Each structure stands twice: as structure tokens, then as C-alpha cells.
């Protein structure tokens, strides 16, 4: 039975950058103004300080060392992965390791080929150009970037119509570091022009504990092993979220206790901020509770689920669902969203008899 006016799955593509709602969440991966300022102070300055991503660090170290030994600029680098895993930090480390300045911009800021031409023509030799969300560049700028990356040249069009003239502009050798959260949206000709590509993985809890201890030292925060472990376990495998939770727990410890972050203080603080032991926040639990209590575990269409939690469909699809799917609490099926047995267990709810009988987490009513 179709319980959604736009279809049971209703998975139209959302705005590429994702909704702004994630920036307001304590466990959101998007950086806000405060995060940006704090991250600048907490960022490691070289590969030796960078925690996690061992394969990427090893491979990137070889690329940069070889370039320095040759006295050449490093190959273009493409970094992909979820927000908050360290792509911007690695771009700054690449510039530092090469002893070169870095220029930072983003795909959405480059909407015309002229915008890109102005940036490229002002680069110095060996400079690193960091292009965040590279998949969101306009197509004309993208096509100009092909030639710039491969031949260090761009053609500037002067005039219009039959009298238009292409003037070639030579560029000094530079290193482009592209970052994307959606590598699949990059066209193959652009991907193929990167000499080194790396995918950033989510962090293990032990790695996040190391990140937290380092950040605590830099922020002059006292935390014990158990306190750092408690925060790491709720950080969704993302250093940015771990650092954000650390700051909020620090505030709680400062106001409610002696300023030392222990396991108990961390639990109390994160309970106040509605972040549970698996890292789910209010929105995540609202999606699960609606799916389980209103729709008996599904399947249910995305738009219907979004109405039930009082959010835009893009917010549910882009902000809440990825983590719930990764945690094995929700599944996307051709007929709609379905809760897993783990979701029932996490919210301490008993699935209907028909769900227990077939172990699918679905009922006959919503599975028709």
C-alpha cells in the first residue's frame, strides 16, 4: 500500500550542499562560525600530528616527500569523505609540508568561468589552491579547470559572438587540492586529472580519544580517560563533532562541577544536550520514534516521515538518515523507510508480533 503522495521511497535528489539544519545540531558535521575559529586553533600543523587515517597519511607522505626531492610542485590531490573528517586540515598540511602558501575557496563560490580564471591567474608558482565542495562548481568553470590542471593554461574569451577571441594565458605550476563529500558527482574527466585521490574514513573510538586528549590539552581542559572515552563514543566517528562535544561538556563541567571532565560528568552533560550513548540527538530519535510508533516500523515514504517529525524532507534525508543507516537502525527500501530490529532495541520498544515472527521489522499493514 502506498502511504505517500509522492511514492513510497520518494528519494528525489536533494540540494547538493545539504540543508542548513545540520549546522545547528550539536552532532551535525557542518562547521559553524564557532567551529571554524576553534578548528583553526586545534588543527595539526604536519602529518606527524595528524591523528587517524593511517593509509591516507602514509600515501600522502610519500607523494609530498617525492615532490620535495624532485624540487617540483606536488600532484593535484582529491580528498573525499563525509564532513568533519579533516579534508581542510590535510589541505593546509599539504601546503605546510611543501612550504607553499595556500588559497582557499569553494565550488559554490565559482559560478562562472571568469571567477575561476581570476583566481588561477593570480596564483604564485607552487601555491596550493584548496577547492572545497569541488563537485558544486559550475560546468563552464569545471571545463576550464581541466586545461588548467593538465597544461597549466587557460583560454580567456574576449568579446562575444563571431568576433570572440580566445587568448591563452599561461599559469605557473600549482597544486590543486579538491575536497568533496560526494565523489560520485565529479565527472570522470575531472577525477582523472588528480594525481592522488584519497577517501577519508570515519574514525574509530580509540582514534577519537587521541583527538580529544590533544584538543583538551590545547584548550586547557582537564579530562580523564573515562571522560574522553564517553565523549568519543557519542561523536559519530567524526573529529569535528568530538571537539564540539568536548567544548559543551567543558562548559557543563565548569558550571556544575570542578571543571574536570569525568565519565559521569560527560554523561550528565550530554544528557542535557540530548545526545545519547550512540550519538543520536533529538532529530534522530524523532525520526526513529515516528517510524516505530506511528508507522509500526514501516515501510513509509520519505515525505510522510518528514511531515510526521515536522521537518523538511531534505533535512530528514540528508541530515538524519545517513547516520541512522550507517548505525544499522534504519534501512532504505524500494517501498520506503524501514526500521531494523536494532532500532526497536535502542528505543526499548517491543516490535509488533508480525515483526517478531518474520524478523523483518515490518508489519503487514505497511508492508502491503
TrEMBL record:
<dbReference type="GO" id="GO:0009378">
    <property type="term" value="F:four-way junction helicase activity"/>
</dbReference>
<feature type="binding site">
    <location>
        <position position="89"/>
    </location>
    <ligand>
        <name>ATP</name>
    </ligand>
</feature>
<feature type="region of interest" description="Small ATPAse domain (RuvB-S)">
    <location>
        <begin position="204"/>
        <end position="274"/>
    </location>
</feature>
<dbReference type="GO" id="GO:0048476">
    <property type="term" value="C:Holliday junction resolvase complex"/>
</dbReference>
<dbReference type="InterPro" id="IPR004605">
    <property type="entry name" value="DNA_helicase_Holl-junc_RuvB"/>
</dbReference>
<comment type="subunit">
    <text>Homohexamer. Forms an RuvA(8)-RuvB(12)-Holliday junction (HJ) complex. HJ DNA is sandwiched between 2 RuvA tetramers; dsDNA enters through RuvA and exits via RuvB. An RuvB hexamer assembles on each DNA strand where it exits the tetramer. Each RuvB hexamer is contacted by two RuvA subunits (via domain III) on 2 adjacent RuvB subunits; this complex drives branch migration. In the full resolvosome a probable DNA-RuvA(4)-RuvB(12)-RuvC(2) complex forms which resolves the HJ.</text>
</comment>
<feature type="binding site">
    <location>
        <position position="88"/>
    </location>
    <ligand>
        <name>ATP</name>
    </ligand>
</feature>
<comment type="function">
    <text>The RuvA-RuvB-RuvC complex processes Holliday junction (HJ) DNA during genetic recombination and DNA repair, while the RuvA-RuvB complex plays an important role in the rescue of blocked DNA replication forks via replication fork reversal (RFR). RuvA specifically binds to HJ cruciform DNA, conferring on it an open structure. The RuvB hexamer acts as an ATP-dependent pump, pulling dsDNA into and through the RuvAB complex. RuvB forms 2 homohexamers on either side of HJ DNA bound by 1 or 2 RuvA tetramers; 4 subunits per hexamer contact DNA at a time.</text>
</comment>
<feature type="domain" description="AAA+ ATPase">
    <location>
        <begin position="73"/>
        <end position="204"/>
    </location>
</feature>
<dbReference type="Pfam" id="PF05491">
    <property type="entry name" value="WHD_RuvB"/>
</dbReference>
<feature type="binding site">
    <location>
        <position position="240"/>
    </location>
    <ligand>
        <name>ATP</name>
    </ligand>
</feature>
<feature type="binding site">
    <location>
        <position position="42"/>
    </location>
    <ligand>
        <name>ATP</name>
    </ligand>
</feature>
<comment type="similarity">
    <text>Belongs to the RuvB family.</text>
</comment>
<dbReference type="Pfam" id="PF17864">
    <property type="entry name" value="AAA_lid_4"/>
</dbReference>
<dbReference type="InterPro" id="IPR036388">
    <property type="entry name" value="WH-like_DNA-bd_sf"/>
</dbReference>
<keyword id="KW-0067">ATP-binding</keyword>
<feature type="binding site">
    <location>
        <position position="337"/>
    </location>
    <ligand>
        <name>DNA</name>
    </ligand>
</feature>
<feature type="binding site">
    <location>
        <position position="193"/>
    </location>
    <ligand>
        <name>ATP</name>
    </ligand>
</feature>
<dbReference type="GO" id="GO:0006310">
    <property type="term" value="P:DNA recombination"/>
</dbReference>
<feature type="binding site">
    <location>
        <position position="332"/>
    </location>
    <ligand>
        <name>DNA</name>
    </ligand>
</feature>
<dbReference type="GO" id="GO:0000400">
    <property type="term" value="F:four-way junction DNA binding"/>
</dbReference>
<feature type="region of interest" description="Disordered">
    <location>
        <begin position="1"/>
        <end position="24"/>
    </location>
</feature>
<dbReference type="InterPro" id="IPR008823">
    <property type="entry name" value="RuvB_wg_C"/>
</dbReference>
<dbReference type="GO" id="GO:0005737">
    <property type="term" value="C:cytoplasm"/>
</dbReference>
<feature type="region of interest" description="Head domain (RuvB-H)">
    <location>
        <begin position="277"/>
        <end position="368"/>
    </location>
</feature>
<keyword id="KW-0547">Nucleotide-binding</keyword>
<dbReference type="GO" id="GO:0016787">
    <property type="term" value="F:hydrolase activity"/>
</dbReference>
<dbReference type="InterPro" id="IPR003593">
    <property type="entry name" value="AAA+_ATPase"/>
</dbReference>
<keyword id="KW-0963">Cytoplasm</keyword>
<dbReference type="InterPro" id="IPR041445">
    <property type="entry name" value="AAA_lid_4"/>
</dbReference>
<feature type="binding site">
    <location>
        <position position="87"/>
    </location>
    <ligand>
        <name>ATP</name>
    </ligand>
</feature>
<dbReference type="InterPro" id="IPR036390">
    <property type="entry name" value="WH_DNA-bd_sf"/>
</dbReference>
<keyword id="KW-0347">Helicase</keyword>
<keyword id="KW-0238">DNA-binding</keyword>
<feature type="binding site">
    <location>
        <position position="203"/>
    </location>
    <ligand>
        <name>ATP</name>
    </ligand>
</feature>
<dbReference type="InterPro" id="IPR027417">
    <property type="entry name" value="P-loop_NTPase"/>
</dbReference>
<keyword id="KW-0378">Hydrolase</keyword>
<protein>
    <recommendedName>
        <fullName>Holliday junction branch migration complex subunit RuvB</fullName>
        <ecNumber>3.6.4.-</ecNumber>
    </recommendedName>
</protein>
<dbReference type="Pfam" id="PF05496">
    <property type="entry name" value="RuvB_N"/>
</dbReference>
<dbReference type="InterPro" id="IPR008824">
    <property type="entry name" value="RuvB-like_N"/>
</dbReference>
<dbReference type="GO" id="GO:0005524">
    <property type="term" value="F:ATP binding"/>
</dbReference>
<feature type="binding site">
    <location>
        <position position="313"/>
    </location>
    <ligand>
        <name>DNA</name>
    </ligand>
</feature>
Amino acid at each position: 500500500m502506498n502511504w505517500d503522495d509522492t511514492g513510497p521511497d520518494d528519494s528525489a535528489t536533494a540540494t547538493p550542499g545539504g540543508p542548513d539544519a545540520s549546522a545547528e545540531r550539536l552532532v551535525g558535521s557542518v562547521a559553524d562560525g564557532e567551529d571554524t575559529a576553534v578548528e583553526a586553533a586545534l588543527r595539526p600543523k604536519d602529518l606527524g600530528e595528524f591523528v587517524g587515517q593511517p593509509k591516507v597519511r602514509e600515501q600522502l607522505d610519500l607523494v609530498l616527500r617525492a615532490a620535495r626531492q624532485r624540487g617540483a610542485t606536488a600532484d593535484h590531490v582529491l580528498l573525499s569523505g563525509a564532513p568533519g573528517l579533516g579534508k581542510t586540515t590535510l589541505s593546509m598540511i599539504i601546503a605546510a609540508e611543501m612550504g607553499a602558501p595556500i588559497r582557499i575557496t569553494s565550488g559554490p563560490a565559482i559560478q562562472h568561468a571568469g571567477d575561476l580564471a581570476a583566481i588561477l591567474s593570480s596564483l604564485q608558482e607552487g601555491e596550493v589552491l584548496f577547492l572545497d565542495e569541488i563537485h558544486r562548481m559550475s560546468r563552464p568553470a569545471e571545463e576550464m579547470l581541466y586545461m588548467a590542471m593538465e597544461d597549466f593554461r587557460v583560454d580567456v574569451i574576449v568579446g562575444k559572438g563571431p568576433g570572440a577571441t580566445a587568448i591563452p594565458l599561461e599559469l605557473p605550476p600549482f597544486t590543486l587540492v579538491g575536497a568533496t563529500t560526494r565523489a560520485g558527482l565529479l565527472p570522470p574527466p575531472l577525477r582523472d586529472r588528480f594525481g592522488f585521490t584519497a577517501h577519508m574514513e570515519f574514525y574509530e573510538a580509540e582514534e577519537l580519544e587521541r583527538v580529544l586528549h590533544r584538543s583538551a590539552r590545547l584548550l586547557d581542559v582537564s579530562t580523564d580517560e573515562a571522560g574522553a572515552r564517553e565523549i568519543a563514543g557519542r561523536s559519530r566517528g567524526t573529529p569535528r563533532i568530538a571537539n564540539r562535544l568536548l567544548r559543551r561538556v567543558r562548559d557543563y563541567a565548569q558550571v556544575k562541577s570542578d571543571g574536570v571532565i569525568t565519565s559521569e560528568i560527560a554523561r550528565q552533560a550530554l544528557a542535557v544536550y540530548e545526545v545519547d550513548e550512540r550519538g543520536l540527538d533529538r532529530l534522530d530519535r524523532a525520526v526513529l520514534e515516528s517510524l516505530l510508533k506511528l508507522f509500526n516500523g514501516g515501510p513509509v515514504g520519505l515525505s510522510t516521515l518528514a511531515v510526521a517529525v515536522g521537518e523538511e524532507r531534505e533535512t530528514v534525508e540528508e541530515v538524519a538518515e545517513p547516520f541512522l543507516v550507517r548505525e544499522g537502525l534504519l534501512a532504505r527500501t524500494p517501498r520506503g523507510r524501514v526500521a531494523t530490529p536494532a532500532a526497536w532495541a535502542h528505543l526499548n520498544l517491543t516490535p509488533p508480533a508480525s515483526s517478531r515472527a518474520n524478523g523483518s521489522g515490518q508489519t503487514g499493514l505497511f508492508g502491503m
